[in-house]
Amino acid sequence: MTTKMWKKSAFKLDIGQVVVGKWHKNVYQVQKKLGEGAIGAVYLCSSKGRLVALKGSDQTASIMSEVNRLKALKRGQGHSLGPAFIDVDDLEDSRGVCYSFYAMEYIDGISLDNFIRIRGFDWLDPFIHQFSNQLSHLHQAGWVLGDIKIENILVTKKPHRLRWIDVGGMTEIGRSMKEYSEFYDRAYWHLGSRRAEPSYDIFAFAMVIIRLYYPKGFERSDHPKKKLLEKINQAPVPEYRKQLLKHMVQGDFKQMGEVKDMILNLPTQQTRRSQSSRTNAKRKNSTYSKDIQPHYPWLEVSSIVGWLLITSYLNLTF
Amino acid sequence: MQKGTLKQILLITDGCSNKGEDPAAVAAFIAEQSIAVNVIGILEEGAVDAKGLSEIEEIAASGQGESQIVYSHHLSQTVQSVTKKSMTKTLQGVVNQELKQILGEEKTLEDLPPEERGEIMEVVNDMEETCDVEVLVLVDSSASMTHKLPTVQEALIDLSVSMNARIGRNRFAIYHFPGKRKVIQKLIDWTGELKSVSQIFPKLAGGGITPTGPALKEALKAFSEPKKRRSMRWNDYEDVEEIGF
Ligand SMILES: Nc1ncnc2c1ncn2[C@@H]1O[C@H](COP(=O)(O)OP(=O)(O)OP(=O)(O)O)[C@@H](O)[C@H]1O
């Protein structure tokens, strides 16, 4: 192509570097690198007195597609699931190489699997409820989230909510899935197509929950469906959640709202209390991350005991 | 709206050609007929064949397609990403061509402000979803490839599952080379659905020669065989011109 300056070269910023957008002239100061994906790299930057996440790449087309999706995500939700869109621009580095980047809200949180490992599976039902709620808004707006996987879900601090950080897989309903990951893909498990439908997200979300019980994942066998149902049965999952998961992976729910309803009509607390004391025992041994302040929305005697154990444990480690 | 057909060859090989004309030159010739040549190199775990790698890249570069080197267990996702990336590239090329006519010789997508670029990307995405696609798969069946063929079959079926989730129509044909008597041998004639095919690769007695260049040349003929199909032109997307500049 004519402009040689857009040659392939990885997007890289230095800590402390000041980035000024070519078109909009907004200023970003680089704080640290957050991560790197297939398309480009993400940096934490400060701009106009706040923190933002800046994603840049030499693949301008992919950046533009993601920006379009971020904007659609914003239109399709009441309160935010994904990061808010802030800015899109180009950057020319000192060698004259051009990159495209966009700035979005910085989401400060830890991964869902870490959170659950530390705080226990009690948090799962509230999270499933919240996520179902927000997904159903997005579905009503005509989109599926697509590439739903554990790595793309963060839990924020105050309050503890699920947030979403990767819009690359967002697809308009009725079209073919933009991106997916094998373990979370229903077609991989021979349980549906790769056409974007609410039930595609429901399946992938069930796999996120299953993955919490099988951190390393597992592969399909010659009978993918049978293997998956076996894995659900074998997991240390309360019975009502097994039923929920089985419905979710087999395409019994067509709308996210049905998942929500099932969570709301949960069985008695008894079955669940026994599970919660089990997780408290586990907490004692887990390495408690310092940046998570334990706070309990519903205190029980058993949790107070757990709390005391944790506090003394923390004191020992300081 | 009249939709165009996007044509691709997908070459799957594990090494260097050793017979006949230079495959990169043949790929350049094929690209001239508006057919992109994509190449996937399947690598043995641990083995690096520098000569094979550079040939793979060179064929795709001349063929205006995409290339990717992969270990066999990652094949499915690679086959799809290469196919889709190549579609985007071709369609972007079509769009850039048109932009040059509107904006002047030296202009491309990147010279537009980000907002307008975003609108154009939406158009490219729409085209990707709705255009008809023909993929001719050309599989190297030399001796070293034979034990990888089950994985190749799985990847191709998975490709058809992904492609058939699109709104546009798809046709696939599968050939292997070298054939017993011919340079390339047809395994599956043009079809929209590979899912129903139980066995793509019969027992193939793989030999030692890899005539990649001649095979590509024959593959081109297999394309225009049934009837002359129109290839993609901008005019197939009349409504696109309505984006204001
Ligand atoms: N808005 C954000 N707030 C906080 N962290 C973010 C944000 N966006 C991205 N990150 C961090 O940056 C990392 C890289 O993100 P990115 O989206 O580039 O890659 P990915 O999702 O791993 O891969 P891919 O590009 O293939 O989708 C993420 O894993 C995440 O930790």
From TrEMBL, chain A:
Protein kinase domain: residues covered: 28-299
Pfam families for this protein: Pkinase
SMART domains named among the record's database cross-references: S_TKc (SM00220)
Domain of life: Bacteria
Biased composition (Low complexity): 268-279
Molecular function GO terms recorded: ATP binding; protein kinase activity
Region (Disordered): 268-287
Keyword terms, alphabetized: Kinase, Transferase
Entry annotated with the keyword Kinase: yes
PROSITE patterns for this protein: PROTEIN_KINASE_DOM
Name assigned to this protein: Serine/threonine-protein kinase
Species assigned in the record: Saliterribacillus persicus
UniProtKB/TrEMBL annotation, chain B:
Organism domain of life: Bacteria
Domain VWFA stretches: 1-91, 134-245
Pfam families per UniProt: VWA
Gene3D superfamilies in the cross-refs: von Willebrand factor, type A domain
InterPro entries noted in UniProt: VWF_A, vWFA_dom_sf
Protein name: Ca-activated chloride channel family protein
Record organism: Saliterribacillus persicus
Taxonomic lineage from the root: Bacteria, Bacillati, Bacillota, Bacilli, Bacillales
